Each structure stands twice: as structure tokens, then as C-alpha cells.
Amino acid sequence: MENARDIRRRIRAVDNIKQITRAMELVARTKLRRTQEQAEAARPYSEELGRLMRRSVPAGGMSALMADVSPLLQVREVHSTLVIAFSADRGLCGAYNNNIIKRTARQIDQLESDGEVKLIPVGRQIRDHFRRRDVEIYDEFTDVGEEANLNLAHTLSHLAQREFAEERVDRVQLVYSEFVSVFQHPPVVQDLLPVTSLEQQTDDEGGGPVEASYLYEPSTDRLFEQLLPRYVDNSLYRALTEAKASEQAARVFAMKNATDNAGDLIEDLTRQYNRVRQSQITREITEIASGAEALAEQRR
Fold first, then answer.
1. pLDDT at 176
2. Which of 69, 124, 200, 249 has a CB 3.0–4.6 Å from the CB of 142, allowing a cystine?
3. What domains are there in the chain, each with its CATH number?
4. pTM over 0.85
């Protein structure tokens, strides 16, 4: 059984850990506020850009554009897939990294039936995991910071577009955590290239195509040629903002749980310390009383 001194030492150690986790929680809350604002600010632009491009699709649909406008629209038989997966550089964020790693591993297992799979890990945690697996790491990005980086999104977008346009890969997918709330950020898989999701919108009543409300100059094809790379850039940037907001939310939740658990442990240790101390005091009183009684008997 531990003595009172050992228990006091444990209480001090746990209290020090509690102070650290509490400070980390406060720092993560500050970063969460900024990353959440980034993610929420990126959504309207992304949605409006997609809406503009869908309005520009001719009546024949995407197939009418694919042949001539841009190589980013070409759908071809899949022999090689590039997967870009986003994790954190550091741990201490609960199950965030583990969930992304598991979802990426499951996606790679599914894609391997179609051919070769190349991986670009963004974040040290997922990089370190897949280095130990038989997966080709085409490139890697670590130490990317605590917030979304527009330059990193452009770099990833340029790399993905180049590999797809030069037909070194036939498909590009993203794996990241979508920020829904502080408590909900599920891993999702998004098809990035080829761009196939820009079909025309329909009206709410008749289900027919929405009439274009703009005149385009010089042409729809030219508009698509200029907007498609920006659309891919924006898709990468939005995925990065969602991933960073999810990471900070997971870290806030993990550090709050650690702080609460440390507080509960301190309470248990304090009760244990009081019981041990009370036992020691009782024993000392008993020893004093026994000694006094022995002296009294000797005097008689």
C-alpha cells in the first residue's frame, strides 16, 4: 500500500499534467476559432463557383465539353489512382488521425482492384503510418502549420492537375475530415479529377434545366478553360480548411477530456491520501496511548 508521501507526489504530478492539458485546450480553442472561420468563409465561394460553372454547362451536359475544352474533364479507363489524404502533424487530438488513417487504408484497399495506387500524405501522422505499409508514397507534405495554407493548396492542385493531364494517373481522390461541428467531423472521400460533377442545375418545379442568366464572352469553352484550374484549386483549399478545423476541434475535445480525467484522478487520489493519513494518525495515537499505558504500569 502506498504511503502518504507517494500519494502526494502522484497528486502533484497529475496536477501538473492537468495544467498542461488545460493550457493546450485553451490554445486549441483559439486556433479552432480561426480555422472554423476559414472553413466557413471558404464554403460560400466554393458553392458559388460551382453554381456558376454548372450554369455554363451546355444542354448536352458534361459530355459535350469533355472532348475539347480541358484534359481535366477527360474520363478514361482507370489504371492508376492518386490519393491525397490529410492528417495532423501532431498527436494529442483524440481519434482524429486514427480515423483518417483507417478511412485512407480502406479506400486504398478498394482502389487497388482497379490498378496502381499512389499516395500523397499531407501531415506527419499519416505519412509515418503508410511508410510502414506497402503503399507507394508519390510525394509528402509535413509541417504544414496549424491553419489552412493557400500556397499549399495551390501546390497540391498543380501537382494533381499535372499528373492527371499528362496521364500518369487516371483519377485523383481526396480523403479528409469534413467539419460539421466541434463534436462531428467524419472522414469523407471526394473525387477531384476528372471533374464530372458539374451537371446543370434543375428548377424546383418542372425539373428542367435552369436558364442561363449571363452572357459569356468570349465563349463558354473559354470560360471553362480558365475556371477549371481555379475550381480544382478551390476544392483542394476547401478540403484543407475542413481538415484543419476538424483537427483543432478534435484537439479541443481531447484536451478537455484529459483535463476532466485528471481532475477526477486528483479527487480519487485525495480521498486515498486522506484515508492513508487518517490511518497513520490513528496508528500513531494508538502507539502513544499504548506507550503511556506501559509507562503507567511500570510506575505501579
1. 96
2. 124
3. 44-198+215-253 (3.40.1380.10)
4. no
